[in-house]
Design goal:
Chains A, B: GO terms for molecular function: rRNA (uridine-N3-)-methyltransferase activity. The structure is a homodimer of 249-residue chains. Chain A has 249 residues and is an alpha/beta fold. In chain A, 34% of the residues lie in helices and 23% in strands.
Chain lengths: 249, 249
């Protein structure tokens, strides 16, 4: 069943009205008709099953059939922060990471980041990533689409450390010396409803100075097993492990 | 340090000789010189650190410095089988899945597979996937490059079920009805050194008839959490969870 994200919070109403891009998708792309059902996902993460009652020239009218029962969201709040990687890797991380349940993505210029994006380019990039996140959230039946934040300075990332219950840094050098327990320990300490920020370097990794600063502000460095993972693969590993730990075990 | 895969098993020798494609890579691409070191990974999964002693016009001579100590391979033997997906998704699964530790990849024509590859096309495709697996194994510092097998009939996949200690089938319908424990239970029953085959459908998923046949031959259907994962994302989820469970927890 098709899923549409609305920008307003849920409110019990006789009718819900859809216009604009979602209207276009329902009527022109999906060619839906009255009596067909869709999911409507509200900004407060509540979702309902709704039935189309009327289609006019510029609006679709729907009535609530029932609340969506299933909890589709990770029970912990995960933010994935990536040092701006090359090419379209960030798009890839956002698409797959949304499927895997990330709540938010932050891009930031790490010391080894090759790409330099100015204010205008960042805004454009952010819009594109938000669109990718929304599509992936719809496709994977999530209850909301993750936020995208692209920072202009690495310091801005450090400034948000204190708003998280835990901050981890995936660090290849930890993996190389055989550090294998900190990630699992951190997850075992994390409680349902808490928030975790996990930081990944760009292709060139982090400098010792960057790692030192992260640690000063409370970040915990950890390895992700004995194999060296690419910049874009490591976030997938972390999100899969978190889902496994909190949703399946 | 660069890593090269050799087709012969390890044997203690005074000198190791490298020719062909690896020679080209060492001498022309990396422009290495005598006294520089590389990893040599043998077909029996043993790897050594070796030092270049001589470079001639068509061969590099190396001597063993030490055995590689770190265990880079998953402690369980994982085979990922994918119903042939569209486009280059199988290449993507092989690249990322190799980083994440898969021992073998099997491609097979599922009922919903759109692509139809004949014998010749399969052989060409296999060569390409083997090259991708070898490159990803080098990059992620693995001790061997995974095997690639592309089957012409789905029955050939079922025929190998009995050679595995466990066979799992990732099934979206299981996830939808809230089945969340079988995957973790299967992993908890799996012992170090044992083998597991995990089967993933193409974009269209499996038909009820296919699932029934898999089950008749001992396959266990399982869900992978509450979100719907794409055909190429689900194998990453499974491999990450296995690494987490067996290497980090």
């Amino acid at each position: 069943m098709q899923r549409y994200f609305l920008t307003e919070p849920y409110e019990a109403k006789e009718h819900y009205v859809i216009t604009g891009e979602n209207y276009h998708h329902i009527v022109r792309v999906m060619r839906m008709e009255t009596e067909q059902q869709v999911f409507l996902a509200f900004s407060d993460r509540l979702a309902i099953i709704a039935e189309i009652t009327e289609i006019t020239e510029d609006a679709v009218y729907l009535k609530e059939v029932s609340k969506e029962q299933a909890e589709k969201e990770l029970p912990v709040n995960v933010t994935i922060a990536c040092g701006h990687p090359k090419g379209d890797k960030l798009e890839w991380v956002v698409q797959k990471g949304t499927e895997l349940g990330s709540h938010k993505f932050i891009g930031f210029p790490a010391k080894a980041s090759v790409v330099k994006w100015d204010h205008k380019k960042l805004a454009k990039k952010r819009d594109r990533l938000k669109k990718i996140a929304t599509e992936a959230a719809e496709q994977s039946h999530r209850q909301f689409a993750p936020d995208i934040v692209l920072l202009e300075k690495e310091q801005e990332l450090i400034d948000v450390f204190s708003s998280y219950d835990k901050v981890l840094i995936a660090y290849e050098e930890s993996a190389k010396v055989g550090e294998r327990s900190r990630f699992a320990t951190a997850l075992s300490e994390l409680k349902v409803g808490e928030s975790i920020l996990i930081i990944f370097g760009p292709e060139g990794g982090f400098s010792p100075a960057e790692i030192e600063t992260f640690q000063e502000y409370g970040g915990i460095i950890c390895g992700l097993g004995p194999r060296i993972l690419r910049a874009e693969t490591a976030p997938m590993y972390v999100l899969s492990a978190i889902s496994y730990q909190f949703e399946l075990v």
